[in-house]
Model the fold of this input.
Amino acid sequence: MPTEVMRVSADDLNQAAFQRAKAVLAVDGLVAFPTETVYGLGANAFSAAAVARIFTAKGRPANNPLIVHVADVAGVERVATEWPANAARLAERFWPGPLTLVLPKRAEVPDAVTGGGPTVAVRVPAHPVALALLRTSGLPLAAPSANRSSQVSPTQAAHVLRSLEGRIDLILDGGPTSGGIESTIIDVTTEPPRLLRPGLITTAQVEAVIGSLERPVTMVKTSAPLPAPGMLERHYAPRAPLECVSEAGMSRAAELCGSGLRVGWVKLAPISVNQETQDQVGRPNQITPLVAGLDAGLNMLVVEMPLDPTAYSAQIYATLHELDDAGVDRILVDWPPETDDWLAVRDRLRRAATQ
Ligand code: AMP
Ligand code: MG
Done:
């Protein structure tokens, strides 16, 4: 099927594009749309047939559940049976925003959405285009990232098109996303609540509202850039093999270049933070990652990344897409600081480096 791309803007939400999207969703079609994290691939969360098409389009394993997006807190009731006190506190503080809550599911939610499990993951996104789509369609939308399974998530409509052209019906192009990496996921059905995935909202922000979280072993601090092989699923990965480097970035880059490989080095640089990227309400990201320097002697591209987790998150996926476009053979990434505010970035880099 040909994939249609329609431009949308936050200033003019009464556009034909939203009516078109509503019509596509009503017949179990797939619509990619921007959120404040990455582009999502949306389908009617109540339709098992529509949700099945998401898994086919992405090549996603059936046991990997989807996040359901709703327009507001009232919308949660349509998909979940309980609203624990911790959920109410977190929603009050962080919704709309990049925080996903795992709740007991309603029977009306197809098993395909939840991987057959008894819980459903829900969030209210902060992007005006996502909210307008949810309101216009009147549906909860199951929406994973709009890319083939295990690839780098899309932060621009062009990334979606490249990954899923011909496999989905419509892309709403609302420009680059501002957050850059995925939402934080908290299971609020347990006591203490559990961190299932670190994301744009930091664990410190969550813990300030509901107290200590239980964390999976794979997220405890480690000074090694990589966990034992096989501990993590490969995910968020560029085409070129990615390697994390602790300090010896330059010598490793030189070594790889010396063996004839073209290297992209994602380097941490203490540059000032652009205010726009601090913004989590979905305005377009003002930083365009640029391939900053081509060392004449070495076959190497260097991208300087901000030494700030929020600004870094906003750029990392676009940077990996850009290095793949540039045709590098290997990507080196400086390992970020071992502090909690970098937890989500370290998680994504670890998975991207998993072979
Ligand atoms: P993606 O949409 O690709 O960002 O991935 C969504 C992630 O949400 C999945 O990889 C799951 O780990 C997580 N998730 C979704 N639903 C649930 C659930 N009911 N319980 C636990 N984790 C979930
Ligand atoms: Mg994904």
